[in-house]
Write a structure and sequence with these properties.
heterodimer, A: alpha/beta, 3 helices, 40% helix, 17% strand, B: alpha/beta, two-stranded antiparallel sheet, globular
């Protein structure tokens, strides 16, 4: 349910005029919900930024997500290339 | 994923909450001048705060403000769901609330600043009416009042 909850909060924030991007762990939920911008990552539930104490990987995921902020062709749902 | 969650995923009416139209707010400034806030649904809270209510049938739609000055490792992880492996977030809160990573991005000059507060929800919300009508818009309004340009959201 976390993925749906994130998308619904994201929509409320975007409606307030703030640009948003989220991480997704379940394609099937994000594809239906259609939040403005989401980066799908191929990790198990509980591991949205890949691995604990792996700052390099966490930065790569964050960087890939932040790169979606310039996109206005919403909904933007991209796959992280691990 | 264990069977009860596979069945849940199959039958939960996700389409009921599909966003139409999809909201879109253009980013007016560059990231290196943007004010950024984090939002997580990992159920994190500070040691001083009351935790989330795990016994509400429909889920706890409330939120906690996480001060930007917090020591990330002191945050309490009390998400009720057994649908995911908690060991990663227990080992490193940044896995679902990457505050230390964003501090590094500010230090490198890649983003402008972090907001003075961030927000945490507990994501197991089966009936999101109160989230949609009340608590998510409250958070959005606080971020807008803070002059936040970008929100980065992470599930667990």
């Amino acid at each position: 349910m976390c993925i749906q909850t994130v998308g619904l909060i994201q929509a409320a924030i975007e409606r307030a005029g703030i640009t948003t991007v989220s991480i997704s762990l379940l394609h099937e939920v994000t594809d239906v919900l259609r939040p403005p911008r989401a980066l799908f990552v191929p990790y198990k539930l509980g591991f949205p930024l890949g691995e604990p104490n792996n700052a390099a990987l966490q930065h790569r995921i964050i960087g890939a997500a932040l790169s979606l902020l310039a996109r206005n062709d919403v909904p933007v749902i991209e796959d992280f290339q691990a | 994923m264990i069977l009860k969650y596979r069945l849940f995923m199959k039958f939960y009416p996700f389409a009921r909450y599909a966003l139409n139209p999809v909201p879109c707010a253009n980013l007016d400034n560059l990231l290196n001048t943007a004010r950024v806030a984090l939002v997580t649904t990992a159920g994190l809270h500070t040691p001083e705060q009351v935790g989330f209510d795990s016994f509400l049938k429909d889920g706890d739609a409330s939120f906690r403000e996480i001060p930007n000055t917090v020591t990330t490792s002191t945050l309490i992880e009390a998400h009720k769901s057994d649908s995911f492996d908690h060991s990663g977030v227990q080992a490193d809160r940044n896995l679902a609330f990457p505050l230390d990573r964003f501090r590094e991005l500010v230090a490198r000059g890649e983003i402008g600043a972090l907001n003075h507060r961030h927000f945490s929800f507990m994501g197991s919300i089966l009936r999101p009416k109160r989230l949609i009508q009340e608590t998510a818009p409250q958070v959005a309004e606080r971020l807008r009042a803070d002059g936040v340009d970008v929100a980065f959201l992470t599930p667990v």
